[in-house]
Design a protein that fits this description.
nine-stranded mixed beta sheet; alpha/beta; 3 domains
Length: 443
């Protein structure tokens, strides 16, 4: 069988996590034949990495306007979409019309109209779309699903999920295009789609109705001024600014990947990667609470904070035979960029699963660690995407377009609820398999 021919669109940092294994570990079964991006500088850098870093060869490149021609000329079999979230729908639907399989980074898309366009094109063409939810492939999260599916605490009635983004990682969303609602859908779509998908998958359930509240209470110029931190908002960007004592400073002059992909590409991409997190034009929320009801009756109580001194999540499941608690803190308390040595020394992941059965002794479940990015998730996901014969997956971790829609739509509905002050029915937004009861019934 000849190697599957891949084209990738959107050559940012996340794209490297797809390209590297494709051209190294799976070079016999998969072949990168094209790259598409609006920035010639980024395209040239990726070709440099292919030839000088990853032992491969340079590939054809194209601007977005020539994407369809690139697919035709290179006889592409599959497209990997790692663009700005708001553009996912465009490349997904164009790839489907060209007869290509699609692998898209999460979220599937950013609003209900684009979501419906994707689902309609999948139905029309019969094409395959995979949403790359690497969160599902983490060994601890997989074990949580196994325990729940085995009935360890009986039928699940409710879930509480609290996620904390710290003032390093969390702040970074406010330096980038993610801080614009029209580009990312806000954190409830861009980031929380991971968490909503996990709960959907853990419960094997489809979300039905959403009510939410959201605020911008920490980042942004008004909040800095209200706290008396106006000096932190004095410069529009961090690179080359006089901000040595600013704990949020971020320089693109690293003589490495960040400088090559972003600082050197500003002239042709118009993308400023290091904007001040206390600037005026941020329009997303940094504190959110969401209540979700599922078609099968369970409730999810979800919260996200984007300015915590530590990062991770606590998830609790209440069943009719007990309770399961999952604790995941992937970062220790962050002291800030002024003390990187202290941060690095204390940055050890901590994962715990505890089961509290009714009328029995509680116990802890241990999980063997896995090597690789995102706690061992990335290598397993890459194998599913690029291997011609990936291992069978009894945990159903591969996600199709309707499952991708089911998670993105929770965030999309939450944004609509915040705007309107009312609860939102997902079926009022998108025709998502109205008679299905379980997530596993969705493609």
């Amino acid at each position: 069988m000849p190697p599957k021919r891949f084209v990738l669109v959107g050559t940012g940092m996340r794209a490297r996590d797809f390209v590297r294994p494709l051209v190294t570990r799976y070079r016999d079964s998969a072949r990168l034949v094209g790259l598409c991006d609006l920035s010639p500088t980024r395209l040239a850098f990726f070709n440099h990495c292919l030839t000088h870093e990853w032992g491969s060869t340079a590939v054809s490149t194209a601007a977005p306007a020539d994407f369809d021609r690139l697919l035709r000329d290179q006889h592409a079999d599959a497209v990997i979409v790692t663009t700005v979230d708001a553009a996912h729908h465009d490349y997904i639907t164009r790839a489907l019309r060209a007869g290509c399989e699609v692998i898209t980074e999460k979220p599937l898309t950013t609003d209900a109209g684009k979501c419906q366009l994707i689902l309609d094109e999948v139905a029309r063409t019969g094409g395959r779309v995979r949403v790359a939810f690497n969160y599902r492939w983490h060994p601890h999260r997989t074990e949580v699903r196994r325990l729940l599916a085995a009935g360890t605490i009986g039928a699940i009635k409710s879930v509480n999920l609290e996620y904390l983004l710290d003032t390093d990682h969390g702040a970074d969303y406010f330096r980038r295009w993610h801080a614009r609602m029209d580009q990312s859908g806000g954190l409830l779509v861009h980031k929380s789609t991971h968490h909503f998908d996990l709960v959907n998958w853990w419960l094997d359930a489809i979300p039905e109705r959403v009510f939410a509240q959201g605020q911008l209470v920490f980042y942004g110029r008004a909040n800095a001024l209200a706290r008396g931190d106006g000096a932190l908002a004095a410069y529009p960007r961090y690179t080359d600014a006089d901000c040595a004592t600013d704990p949020f400073r971020f320089s693109l002059r690293d003589a490495g990947v960040m400088e090559a992909l972003y600082l050197n590409a500003e002239a042709d991409s118009a993308y400023v990667r290091d904007q001040n997190v206390f600037r005026e034009d941020i329009d997303i929320h940094d504190q959110m609470s969401v209540l979700v009801r599922y078609r099968t009756g369970q409730l999810l109580n979800y919260s996200l904070v984007g300015f915590s001194p530590r990062e991770g999540m606590r998830v609790t499941f209440n069943g009719d035979r007990g309770r399961l608690e999952y604790y995941e803190f992937i970062r220790a308390p962050v002291l800030g960029r002024l003390h990187p040595a202290s941060v690095q020394a204390n940055d050890q992941p901590d994962h715990r699963i505890r089961v509290f059965p009714h009328f029995a002794t509680e116990y802890e479940v241990t999980v063997a660690p896995h090597a690789g990015g995102h706690g061992g998730a990335d290598p397993q996901l890459a194998e599913q995407i690029f291997s011609p014969q990936p291992p069978a997956d009894s945990h159903r971790r591969n996600a199709g377009p309707e499952q991708g829609a089911a998670s993105a739509l929770v965030g999309i509905a939450a944004n609509a609820s915040i705007r309107s002050g009312e609860a939102i029915n997902l079926l009022d937004l998108v025709r998502l398999a109205p008679h299905a009861r379980r997530l596993s019934e969705l493609a």
